[in-house]
Amino acid sequence: MKNTGNLFYRVVIIFILTMSFGSLSTAKADVPEMSSSLSAVKARGELVVATSPDYPPYEFLVNKNGHSTVQGVDIMVAKKVAKNIGVKLVVKKMNFDSLLVALQTGKCDMVIGGVNPTPERRKNVLFTKMYYHGGQYILVKKSMSWLYHDKNSFKNKTIGAQTGTTQYDLAKKQIKGVKVRGMTSYSDLVLALKTNKVNGVVMEKPAALAYAKNDGSLRAINAEFKLDKGTTGVAIAVKKGNVSLAQAANKGIDQIQKQDLVNKDYLKKAGQYLKVNTEDTSMWHYWRFFATGIEYTLIISIVSAILGLMLGLLLALMRLSKNRLWRGIAISYIEFLRGTPMMVQVMFVYFGIGVLINIPALLAGIIAVSLNSGAYVAEIIRGGINSVDSGQTEAAESLGLSMSDSYRFVILPQAMRNIWPALGNEFITLLKDSSIVSIIGVTDLIYESNLVRSDTYRGVMPIFIAMLLYFAMTFILTRILNHYERKMQYAN
């Protein structure tokens, strides 16, 4: 294949302009590079707190009159701290596994989410005083509660715990012969319990009691773990070295402990909020959650498909170029992106690049999915170009067409007809794989369905609804792609 010449450089310019425009258009959703010192928080007038709102009664979403807000014991603690500092509280939602990473990379000022200040965590972040000691319970099926009385009842059994938590370590160290199954969210763990994948789920006492109270098929029992009160209470995490902010938070925690606000006030209010969610657990009541999930899923998929197509064309032309440098860059990029999981790529863009630039979660998700899709699209386009008979290029040259015009009017149209089915499959895969961005807190369909599960205590139905919605979207997309495929064949 001859050097693609002018066409290659035109594509480079178009791609750069498009990416620049996309960055400018999403800049309004971004916040400036964030300093988390106490003075910076006061100057900004906002205290950004990250949490994972799937752990009632500590933090959960309340769906009232079609609007959702994050509520719970931890949120009340955070409000108290923000009020003492004299700033507005801003709550940022994301998966529990990502909370401490978000703190270290400057995505938030504080992390609050039933976090236990273990020695391992203290090496990486600074903790405030502990504001609550709830104890550790095990959630079991009520029909099997006659068999389980404490942690020793689970000898040689399978028990569930949230990955990376104190509960996971306690179960592993203090229950003989136990097999601990870790999952990222408690809604997944409770579903595993109900479907007999695990025999029990270890969680903080208030959370276990909340699940048992709102789900008649469950029961909470005292695990009777040997606890170190220095590590099994819950505290607020701030960035390492940010002593001034931790001290400011401690003043609020001192007031909370002095007045015993968690036991006397916060837990009661959290229970009242939980009643709002359980008054109507129909999926129709949560339609706004699913609608928001569909909206973000489509935004990510459409924008990423467009950018991925442009990047794929650029990489394909680079790989077909006779220039060794361009070809080497393209090959390296394609092999690397296809050889690493998209989940890792999403986290690297959001947290890794986020160390230098504070990229909002939605933009980070779009960038990561686009970069991943571009690698696959590049190979599809390259195969399509190579499938065009070399005589077509020679015929175009004999007519006096430049290389760029030959590609534009002769080669690429024929290649597009050849690769359309494969390209369509990539777009469908992209739509489904976009769910991975939920790990950084993008409110796509999977993220929203998980929130519905944790709020309603219904494990299966939200998943089923999400499946139907994904099927509907992919079915419609398939019909659209088939329509244009038929038009191409007819035009041919």
Automatic annotation (TrEMBL):
<feature type="transmembrane region" description="Helical">
    <location>
        <begin position="348"/>
        <end position="369"/>
    </location>
</feature>
<dbReference type="InterPro" id="IPR010065">
    <property type="entry name" value="AA_ABC_transptr_permease_3TM"/>
</dbReference>
<keyword id="KW-0812">Transmembrane</keyword>
<keyword id="KW-0813">Transport</keyword>
<dbReference type="InterPro" id="IPR001638">
    <property type="entry name" value="Solute-binding_3/MltF_N"/>
</dbReference>
<dbReference type="GO" id="GO:0022857">
    <property type="term" value="F:transmembrane transporter activity"/>
</dbReference>
<feature type="transmembrane region" description="Helical">
    <location>
        <begin position="296"/>
        <end position="317"/>
    </location>
</feature>
<dbReference type="GO" id="GO:0043190">
    <property type="term" value="C:ATP-binding cassette (ABC) transporter complex"/>
</dbReference>
<dbReference type="Pfam" id="PF00497">
    <property type="entry name" value="SBP_bac_3"/>
</dbReference>
<dbReference type="InterPro" id="IPR035906">
    <property type="entry name" value="MetI-like_sf"/>
</dbReference>
<keyword id="KW-0029">Amino-acid transport</keyword>
<feature type="transmembrane region" description="Helical">
    <location>
        <begin position="460"/>
        <end position="481"/>
    </location>
</feature>
<comment type="similarity">
    <text>Belongs to the binding-protein-dependent transport system permease family. HisMQ subfamily.</text>
</comment>
<dbReference type="InterPro" id="IPR043429">
    <property type="entry name" value="ArtM/GltK/GlnP/TcyL/YhdX-like"/>
</dbReference>
<protein>
    <submittedName>
        <fullName>ABC transporter permease</fullName>
    </submittedName>
</protein>
<feature type="domain" description="ABC transmembrane type-1">
    <location>
        <begin position="294"/>
        <end position="481"/>
    </location>
</feature>
<keyword id="KW-1003">Cell membrane</keyword>
<dbReference type="Pfam" id="PF00528">
    <property type="entry name" value="BPD_transp_1"/>
</dbReference>
<dbReference type="InterPro" id="IPR000515">
    <property type="entry name" value="MetI-like"/>
</dbReference>
<keyword id="KW-0472">Membrane</keyword>
<keyword id="KW-1133">Transmembrane helix</keyword>
<dbReference type="GO" id="GO:0006865">
    <property type="term" value="P:amino acid transport"/>
</dbReference>
